[in-house]
Design goal:
This protein is an alpha/beta fold. Helix content is about 20%, strand content about 30%. It folds into 2 domains: about 1-155, Glucose Oxidase, domain 1 (3-Layer(bba) Sandwich), CATH 3.50.30; about 155-370, Class I glutamine amidotransferase (GATase) domain (Rossmann fold, 3-Layer(aba) Sandwich), CATH 3.40.50.
Length: about 375
């Protein structure tokens, strides 16, 4: 018998699958019906025990771990599993999919990640919604085992998942491509894929990279998703401030939305149980905060949110249709903006995919304007 023990002493019993090891972390839930390989490899889940509300998980197996031509994962959102454990109502014993090379059980076992199946995930989710996310542990044998649970929110999780050195990705040769500096705070790989397939040259930098130390040419700044409390990312926030002072066009996703808000003098707070899944409705707002006639369904994974109070010149760009929390902010100039949801999806809907194109169009227009100015000066 395997048990999930919550910090308040509540015990959920089930059966073990995956690795037969004990583990602890922050217990959260995801409402997605599909996408477990992408979710488990999403660095934003670092330090968490993930509960799937959908009753059957593992039925289509797991794809290959091979890498693409750029040297990162072809099918996953990173090159490792970041959750500390998973909780499901029923783990499928059999899988069927043309792209599957492993069962979920064997994949978890290979990465030494424990799972517990046979749990009343509906009751667990209701408890987390009422109480809020809480610490917990998966214990293989003795449900009375005493062990202090480490709170992952007190760790610098971003430092754990960020790249360690600058990496440059060049798409298929294009004349005069747009170049961005991308802060990797735990960047999902489909963000990289989304930029590269659009012909953008990406200079991927560690979370604590000093933007003023970069002597190459670039057109814009991107800030990625990532785990944990955004206020631990002090060096990143400082670099974003410098980028704004230098008037560099900036785009952020998820944690990037929170970091941009902190850089401009805004604030963030921890949500009761967060938004995790592929069915979160978001409403676009005008610069007066009035809802426009546009609602998109988004993929989300975050436990913190941005306070609605913003400095002059900034406005709330998107709001969550369920709880009214801030889902995006934008500067009145249109040069700096960010969203709390995931336009790159994986997993989830692609309604917000157009935001990559909007950012790239901005960078191209800026670049063309600069080149035209240089031509006029040269002609004079």
């Amino acid at each position: 018998m395997t048990s999930l023990i919550l910090a308040d002493g509540t015990i959920f019993e089930g059966e073990s699958f995956g690795a037969k090891v004990d583990s602890d972390g922050e217990v959260v839930f995801n409402t997605g019906m599909v996408g477990y390989p992408e979710s488990l490899t999403d660095p934003s889940y670092r330090g968490q025990i993930l509960t799937f509300t959908y009753p059957l998980i593992g039925n289509y197996g797991v794809p290959t771990e091979e890498k693409n031509e750029f040297g990162f994962s072809k099918n996953f959102e990173s090159e490792e599993i970041h959750v500390r454990g998973i909780v499901v109502a029923q783990a499928s014993e059999h899988h069927s999919h043309f792209g599957a090379v492993s069962s979920l059980h064997r994949w978890l076992e290979h990465h030494n990640i424990p799972g517990i199946t046979g749990v009343d995930t509906r009751a667990l989710t209701k408890k987390l919604r009422e109480h809020g996310v809480m610490l917990g542990k998966i214990v293989q044998n003795d449900a009375t085992a005493s062990k202090e649970i480490e709170d992952p929110n007190k760790l610098n999780l971003v430092a754990e998942v960020s790249c360690k050195e600058v990496q440059v990705y060049e798409p298929n040769p294009l004349p005069d491509p747009v170049t961005i500096i991308a802060y990797d705070c735990g960047m999902k790989r489909n963000i990289l894929r989304s930029f590269l397939k659009r012909g953008v040259k990406v200079v991927r930098v560690p979370w604590d990279f000093d933007i003023d130390s970069y002597d190459g040419e670039f057109d814009g700044l991107f800030i990625s998703n990532g785990p944990g409390d955004p206020k631990t990312c002090v060096p990143t926030i400082a670099s974003i401030k410098r980028a704004l002072e230098r008037n560099i066009p900036t785009f952020g996703i998820c944690l990037g939305n929170q970091l941009l808000a902190l850089a401009i003098g805004g604030d963030t707070f921890k949500l009761k149980y967060g938004h995790r899944g592929g069915n979160q409705p978001c409403i676009e707002c005008d610069d007066k905060g009035k809802a426009l006639h546009k609602c998109i369904i988004t993929s989300q994974n975050h436990g913190f949110a941005v306070s609605e109070k913003l400095p002059k010149g900034w406005h709330v760009w998107f709001k969550n249709a369920n709880d009214g929390t801030v889902e995006g902010i934008r500067h009145e100039s249109g040069r700096f903006f960010s969203v709390q949801f995931h336009p790159e999806a994986t997993p989830g809907p692609e309604d917000a995919n157009y935001l990559f194109d909007a950012f790239i169009d901005l960078l191209k227009a800026e670049k063309e304007g600069q080149q035209s100015s240089k031509r006029l000066v040269s002609a004079a």
